[in-house]
Design brief:
Blueprint lengths: L1 H16 L14 E14 L2 E8 L6 E4 L4 E8 L7 E13 L3 E8 L4 E12 L3 E7 H15 L3 H5 L3 E11 L1
């Protein structure tokens, strides 16, 4: 019995000690030009709930992800939670990619600076990429805003929002 227990522990130890890449590449290639088709925005706050679908198909809003962790886009951040992304002037910036998320350094008109916007990759294939932005990602973004304006007002306002779920659908 002791031998069986010893061998069981040895096998479990061997299986759990195998190294694994923490950030494997996404299953689908995300490089290329993506047009923002729709944004489904659901916000629940202490002031009420808002659920809307924003159609971007005719706005020619795009993001082009390049192989050198650079991207070009005409998406800019606004200071309104109800209209987080709008079309602006084309610019180039950096992005970071993991197996399940993408962090874009997006231009903010309000601060005239670039802020890290983390988006979860819900799905991605050759013709469609779906990115999700939740309260967790908003909290990270609010911390970046707080650093720029040297306050904690943005993070404090986050307490008024009970949940946010923004689903951005891009097509090639």
């Amino acid at each position: 019995m002791k031998k069986l227990l010893f061998y069981s522990l040895l096998v479990v130890s061997a299986l759990t000690s195998c190294s694994k890449n923490d950030d494997p590449a996404p299953s689908a290639n995300v490089e290329g030009k993506w047009n923002l088709a729709t944004a489904n925005l659901t916000v629940k706050s202490l002031f009420g709930d808002n659920d809307e679908i924003i159609d971007y198909k005719d706005d020619n809003v795009y993001i082009e992800l390049k192989s050198n962790n650079k991207f070009s886009t005409n998406l800019v951040l606004t200071d309104s939670i109800d209209d987080l992304l709008v079309k602006g002037k084309t610019y180039e910036s950096d992005y970071e990619l993991t197996s399940d998320a993408m962090t874009l350094h997006v231009y903010s008109e309000l601060y005239d600076d670039y802020l890290p916007v983390k988006l979860k990759i819900q799905s991605s294939n050759e013709t469609e990429m779906v990115l999700v932005f939740t309260k967790a990602e908003l909290a990270e973004l609010m911390k970046a805003y707080d650093k720029l304006d040297e306050s904690d007002e943005n993070t404090q306002m986050l307490a008024l929002i009970t949940s946010i779920n923004a689903v951005f659908t891009f097509t090639r």
